[in-house]
Specification:
With about 450 residues, the chain is of the alpha/beta class. It has helices spanning about 10-25, 40-45, 70-75, 110-120, 135-145, 155-160, 170-190, 200-210, 215-220, 240-245, 260-270, 295-300, 315-325, 335-350, and strands at about 30-35, 55-60, 65-70, 85-90, 125-130, 150-155, 250-260, 280-290, 305-310, 330, 350-370, 375-385, 390-395, 400-410, 415, 415-420, 425-430, 440-450.
Length: about 450
């Protein structure tokens, strides 16, 4: 894994460049926020990027800079504070989406952190923020509460004017990521069929990303410019298959809203029992009442599904959920809720397949058909061969090719399958170098229920 690297001189230069503009505009301190949709804000200044969570950086007009991480990033990335005049703070609020248990001493709430900043800088009149499209409303509310009466200004445009393309290595990284995402779509799109569920399609994308070596969804679908004069791209460890292989579990984050506390308690208790070694149910938030805008904002930040039991979402919440891609599910019967969430957990796992051997056929004659290719006149030795079979061509016991069947006939009739003891003509999709004596091994790949 490549850990973030940025020389202290670059860090200092970037912070001071921002401070120069802050001075010109009378801004007393700036808070920048990053998540998996926009890693570059915090990374630009200190080379740090979140692992399965978010990050923030607080830059006062003068004094100590604070880099904020969740515990997962702090521990897993082995982030070391080698930046001058800076410190790192662990805040559960920006680490909740990682699903880690937070037990590190000295953790803070953003409200507490803002109070510390205010105590250190009591004359703050104007606060700037970076991350217009992703800044959580919960944290913004705390910012406005602590710095009540202060002017809060948007610094996004200034930040993006300062960011520049840096090294050839970073350009190379972008190129690699673009090639990867292009290959993923080229290989997966033709396999998508009408009737597939979104989970099935997602599993195909995940499997293909893993095959091509993607470290993360972000790497495959949202290439970002890394920080520093060297390539400091940080792998986000978001590849589901790698997480499970390394003993990590996936989290299904849920927000539960209900009509009464008793119903919510019963749902939470039932859902938590569904957790297993691969997927863990994590209750991010519960509350009595309708599904509101704050619930949608929290769901968007934490990647949660919102469950409403005997309650309905507010109109504005529905609009925001559609805009932000947040899923809201409503139920009136508890067991229906449990069944659907259990199905969703199974859908989170990358699909697993096993081979089912169907039979073998011996090639006894080959016929070349113009504009079609070679037809293998074959005898079914055991089992059966079906039209949907995949075929291994064995020659002297060695696999020389794998292909799919393009045609299966008995005499002049197309057939779905041919059983042991019968003859048939087999045409393969791409392979035509079939020889008398070859063995055609028929098999299908079956998805394993998890």
């Amino acid at each position: 894994m490549n850990y973030p690297v940025i020389p202290a001189s670059d860090y200092t230069a970037r912070v001071e460049a921002l401070r120069k503009i802050m001075h010109e505009k009378g801004v007393d301190f700036v808070i920048g926020f990053s998540n998996l949709l926009e890693l570059g804000i915090v990374r630009y200044y200190c080379g740090f990027a979140p692992v399965n969570e978010s990050a923030a950086i607080l830059i006062p007009a003068e004094g100590e800079v604070i880099v904020c991480s969740g515990q997962a990033s702090y521990d897993y990335c082995l982030v070391k504070n080698e930046l001058p005049n800076s410190r790192i703070a662990i805040l559960p609020e920006i680490g909740e989406v990682s699903g880690f248990v937070y037990d590190t001493e000295g953790q803070l709430d953003f409200e507490e952190l803002f109070k510390q900043v205010k105590a250190e800088h009591p004359y703050v009149k104007k606060v700037g923020f970076i991350g217009r499209l992703i800044f959580p409303s919960i944290i913004m509310d705390k910012l406005r509460k602590v710095f009540a009466g202060c002017e809060v200004v948007d610094m996004d445009d200034i930040h993006y004017e300062q960011r520049i393309m840096k090294s050839p290595a970073e350009v190379e990284l972008m190129t690699k990521n673009w090639e990867m995402v292009s290959e993923v779509f080229k290989n997966v799109i033709p396999k998508i069929k009408a009737g597939m569920t979104e989970r099935e399609v997602e599993g195909m994308f995940v499997a293909e990303m893993g095959r091509l070596g993607a470290e993360s969804f972000v790497q495959a679908f949202a290439p970002m410019i890394a920080s520093g004069p060297v390539n400091s791209f940080v792998s986000m460890r978001r590849n589901d298959e790698r997480q499970i292989q390394e003993g990590e579990t996936k989290d299904l984050n849920l927000i539960i809203k209900g009509d009464v506390t008793g119903s919510i308690g019963a749902i939470v208790s039932s859902l938590e029992k569904l957790s297993n070694e691969n997927v863990r149910v994590k209750i991010v938030h519960t509350g009595v009442g309708t599904v509101n805008e704050s619930d949608v904002t929290l769901a968007g930040t934490t990647g949660s599904i919102i469950i409403g039991f005997n309650v309905r979402p507010e109109a504005e919440a529905v609009v925001n959920a559609e805009r932000d891609g947040v899923e809201i599910r409503t139920y009136r019967v508890i067991y229906e809720c449990i069944e659907e969430i259990e199905a969703a957990m199974k859908g989170m796992l990358a699909p697993k397949f096993r081979e089912n051997l169907l039979g073998h056929a011996e090639v006894r004659q080959t016929i070349h058909v113009p504009n079609v290719g070679t037809i293998a006149g074959s005898y079914i030795l055991d089992g059966k061969v079906t039209r949907a079979s995949q075929i291994r061509v064995l020659r002297d016991g060695v696999v020389i090719y794998e292909d799919k069947i393009s045609s299966l006939r008995r005499f002049k009739d197309d057939v779905r399958e041919v059983a042991q003891g019968y003859e048939c003509g087999v045409g393969l999709d791409r392979f035509n170098d079939i020889k008398v004596g070859d063995i055609l091994e028929a098999f299908i790949m079956e998805q394993i229920e998890q």
